[in-house]
Amino acid sequence: MAFAGTAQAQQNTNPSPTLDAIRARGQLICGIHTGVAGFASPDSRGVWQGLDVDLCRGLAAAIFNDPSKVRFVPLSSSTRFTALGAGEIDVLFRTSTETMLRDTTLGLRFATTYFYDGHGFMVRANSGVQRVRDMDGATICLIQGTTNEQVTADYFRSVNVRFQPVVFERTDQAAAALAAGRCDSFGTDASQLAAVRSSMPTPADWTILPERFSKEPYGAYVRRGDDNWFDIVRWYTTAIIEAEEQGITQANAEEQRRTSVNPNTRRLLGVTPELGQSIKLDPAWAYNAIRAIGNYGELYERTMGEDTPVALPRGPNRLWTNGGLLYALPMR
What we know:
The chain is an alpha/beta fold.
């Protein structure tokens, strides 16, 4: 009978086919949204920007110490999990809710939560609609292959209110239909509603109703069966949150690595090598990622914070010490 420590050591020496393939090609392949402000959208130069995009870049930095060694693959809601399962991408950072059936029936695993959201509805500001119950008989734009289809149907059925779904493959298609008057409302996660509103010609013409009808925690997804790769994605995401908890920023990470005597900081930044060794990465893996993209708070504020066009308050995505839900698991 092997001791627990021996079994753990054996597990940590198992090869990772995903990591081996990434290193062999010299590039991470990351699945992202086809286009939604704040998470993933091309800027005026065609360069992808957003929270999910930067998380991909940070993961590339953790592996290669180079955030540019990543290729982005835009995927629709209906094709994202199929593409991951087929090996077309290495990891999916794409506004994807963690659910039991996705985790247990698709041959995939979600790593850990990096964004908390909830389903909502957006209507014209002059519609007179104050709450969802006022939308009896409304036509509602929805995105195919999302949890939002089921959430909407379940809620309207539960309150005995009729609605007519109009289903689209992509968010931009639904937004265009909403603007053109083909739908009375758009139902999806509140963060994406804020992104769509920011892209409208006159954002003030649109109101996001205050009610929330579901829990929509986003996590990165990987294929089952590659424990080392799962560990890398899980603990990389955790490290970006942990950096904010410790006050480590893109600007001060180098000084913190050089001068800090805090054992937690020294472990996170690779002064002591055990965290990187446990997942087969360079001891400076988390340091390299933080230097490339910053901590979670920095990511949030520059991609969808109140000074951006999306202007979405952090709300539940504040750290747990500030009344939010974000909580880094102990990295020791």
